[in-house]
Sequence to fold (430 residues):
Amino acid sequence: MSKLVVRAVSMSLDGFMAGAHQSLENPMGEGGMALHAWAFGTRTFQKMFGNAGGATEGLDEEFAAKSFENNGATIMGRNMFGPVRDGWGDESWKGWWGEEPPFHHPVFVLTHHARKPLVMKGGTTFHFVTEGIAAARQRALEAAGGKDVRIGGGAETIRQYLKAGLVDELHLVQAPILLGKGERIFEGLDALGGQYRCESFSASKAVVHYRLVKQ
Amino acid sequence: MSKLVVRAVSMSLDGFMAGAHQSLENPMGEGGMALHAWAFGTRTFQKMFGNAGGATEGLDEEFAAKSFENNGATIMGRNMFGPVRDGWGDESWKGWWGEEPPFHHPVFVLTHHARKPLVMKGGTTFHFVTEGIAAARQRALEAAGGKDVRIGGGAETIRQYLKAGLVDELHLVQAPILLGKGERIFEGLDALGGQYRCESFSASKAVVHYRLVKQ
Fold:
């Protein structure tokens, strides 16, 4: 059965999934890039960047590879799709990922501004959903063809789905660093207590991986 | 050299070191007791409760035992000492721990209300410090006779010392549960980014232990 999943979301020991002062030049915020160092070193991510290197085994590679498996559709927030605010203007913005984005499946972008679907190379089509998170979930599940729907981010989008009780599984990654400030994933989610069971957790040399399942 | 240390402080995956609605009947707050389950199972803690059981080895026992080693003095907040608010009234409150508290060294209680030192059995004397956290640190370091000074808690006291940049080492324990709400240890500590280096982290079957050292 299709599930709504959060995968490979990294946060600091003090709970931030991005540092302070996120900007176009520094989308992870101050110090935020360090949260993702575990992923950058894996073969899966190196391959995505067009490189041949990266570790081919180990816990981090295992989880990195898994984060791309069995995803039939992705949901993301407007800000993750791009820096354009308010209306879509001349509609020239086509995402951060170039002509052939690494999704290879339908991507549903949450927005307040309607826009026609955007067909890219390699199987990715961006759909713009103005009817809210429940509608996006419904459409993504239908489009996923029995596979899972991954919530790509950012933090605000993940929080909205958690708040609505719609996330079936989470793979969280904790980096052993303190950022002091930034954007939390777990903020204003008072009802979360007891909703998830930790199925497993394990430490690599770089981070700790947690797998949470809705009970 | 004496250090100011935080040891065996447990928090949830969403960053809470106590659940919501802490009270006299439920001092850890809703769901908060689960954060400490790892410790309760160890021989060190069982012994403290007067029991013979508990695991005698393993990572959790190792860290539990270490949390009591080389402590020459303890600092704690007023609320950790007891539920009495405002003035000390008839001074009949002598802490939660009975006639022979498990500290066996000088304990410095942060308070706004002066009170004479309270000499207990077994080497514990409670000193009441009205001059603030820096004064308490100074007095505790002097009293510790070259050993470390442990900040016993609660969250507010730990935060104050972190904010002032006075904590030399932290041993944090992360339990793989979500509480949703409660009291955070890392809140309002904007300047913390980059102040600590994670010396090691390791997962037991129950929790993940992190050792942080000021850089």
Q: What stands out?
A: The CA atoms of residues 72 and 144 of chain A lie 4 Å apart.
